[in-house]
């Protein structure tokens, strides 16, 4: 990784002091931006269809995205291996934009979230006086998760606030979901805003590969979500030609008809119960856990958790696993949703064990 890699090795330590003092927010942001540039230079960041397979890493990642039939592809992804120049960390994020400016919103959040999360993560570590190299840090997984949770909550609030004041993008009637995972050693932290989904594949007692859903699809008709929206004077109802598809509406207007209860952007409806607060959870990876799939609702609208895990498990060339899952979802749209325009479909498959290089996935 070169000079920057050694400079930022032991991220929390390097941030906690600068010339004998605690670093400022400006210092931390500069450092995070430098790490982004370094990661891009060393091909550690992937923002399109393809694979990430870094020598010596315990991760192997396959990514694929396909435009639907509604116009420009509003899905986007990011994979950052050696996240924050930490050898045992990886960040994966998938974003599903909506509205006229949705693709711009999704890309803006993809651009700002990882570096903002790094800044908040190191700041939280410094505030808790926790040394990431100490035995205590390795042993206290719950405490480590709490640091990530606090960092994610702070990051999502900041990203949404900055987006509202970003004049180059009109996000008043447009927004994006955001689902991301940080793997740090044997800990995975999952943060979800919206209705994309993360599903883990693990080996059951009888030796079969089975799915475990790690996230909730934040739809407006979920009891806790609907209750919050109604208390804020928003409305949750289905259109006559879309039975079963619950949407959020303003009190006295037939807009925006948002099909999820959490999102970045969408400021027209924010005071009526739609929020950008993530649900943050974690899992300690066991020897039985094989991989995790992150995918936008274009996959889950037509593919079950079990089907997705079976598709990825049965793909011999793991580099093509995300593409295979997306293509299966495309075929399912044609058979299960005839007459309905196919949604954008994107998936990330994060394997917990590195694989030998295979033929590269064709970029689209």
From TrEMBL:
Its EC number is 3.1.3.16. PANTHER family: PROTEIN PHOSPHATASE. Its cofactor is Mn(2+); Mg(2+). Residues 16-26 have a biased composition (Basic residues). Pfam families: PP2C. This is protein-serine/threonine phosphatase. One of its GO terms (biological process) is negative regulation of growth. The keyword Magnesium applies. SMART domains: PP2Cc. Belongs to the PP2C family. Keywords: Hydrolase, Magnesium, Manganese, Metal-binding, Protein phosphatase. It catalyses: O-phospho-L-seryl-[protein] + H2O = L-seryl-[protein] + phosphate; O-phospho-L-threonyl-[protein] + H2O = L-threonyl-[protein] + phosphate. The keyword Magnesium applies. Residues 15-35 are annotated as: Disordered. It comes from Lupinus luteus (European yellow lupine). One of its GO terms (molecular function) is metal ion binding. Residues 60-352 form the PPM-type phosphatase domain.
């Amino acid at each position: 990784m070169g000079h920057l890699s050694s400079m930022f090795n032991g991220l929390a330590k390097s941030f906690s002091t600068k010339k004998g003092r605690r670093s400022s927010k400006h210092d931390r942001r500069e450092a995070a931006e430098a790490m982004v540039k370094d990661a891009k230079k060393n091909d550690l960041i992937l923002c399109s269809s393809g694979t990430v397979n870094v020598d010596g890493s315990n991760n192997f990642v396959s990514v694929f995205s396909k435009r639907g039939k509604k116009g420009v592809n509003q899905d986007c992804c990011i994979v950052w291996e050696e996240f924050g120049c930490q050898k045992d960390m990886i960040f994966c994020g998938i974003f599903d934009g909506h509205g006229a400016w949705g693709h711009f919103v999704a890309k803006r959040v993809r651009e700002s979230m990882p570096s903002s999360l790094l800044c908040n993560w190191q700041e939280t570590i410094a505030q808790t006086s926790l040394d990431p190299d100490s035995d205590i840090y390795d042993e206290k997984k719950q405490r480590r998760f709490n640091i990530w949770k606090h960092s994610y909550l702070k990051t999502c609030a900041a990203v949404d606030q900055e987006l509202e004041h970003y004049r180059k993008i009109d996000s008043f009637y447009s927004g994006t979901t955001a689902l991301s995972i940080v793997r740090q050693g044997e800990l995975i932290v999952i943060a979800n805003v919206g209705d994309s989904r993360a599903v883990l594949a693990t080996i059951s007692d009888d030796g079969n590969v089975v799915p475990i859903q790690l996230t909730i699809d934040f739809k407006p008709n979920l009891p806790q979500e609907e209750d919050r929206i109604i208390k804020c004077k928003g409305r949750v109802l289905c259109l006559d030609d879309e039975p079963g598809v619950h949407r959020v509406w303003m009190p006295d207007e037939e807009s925006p008809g948002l099909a999820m209860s959490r999102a970045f952007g969408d400021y027209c409806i924010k005071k009526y119960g739609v929020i950008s607060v993530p649900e943050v959870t974690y899992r300690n990876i066991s020897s039985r856990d094989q991989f995790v799939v992150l995918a936008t609702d274009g996959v889950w609208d037509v593919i079950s958790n079990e089907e997705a895990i079976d598709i990825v498990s049965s793909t011999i060339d793991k580099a093509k696993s995300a593409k295979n899952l997306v293509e299966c979802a495309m075929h399912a749209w044609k058979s299960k949703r005839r007459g309905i325009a196919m949604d954008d479909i994107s998936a990330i498959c994060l394997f917990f064990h590195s694989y030998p290089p295979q033929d590269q996935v064709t970029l689209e």
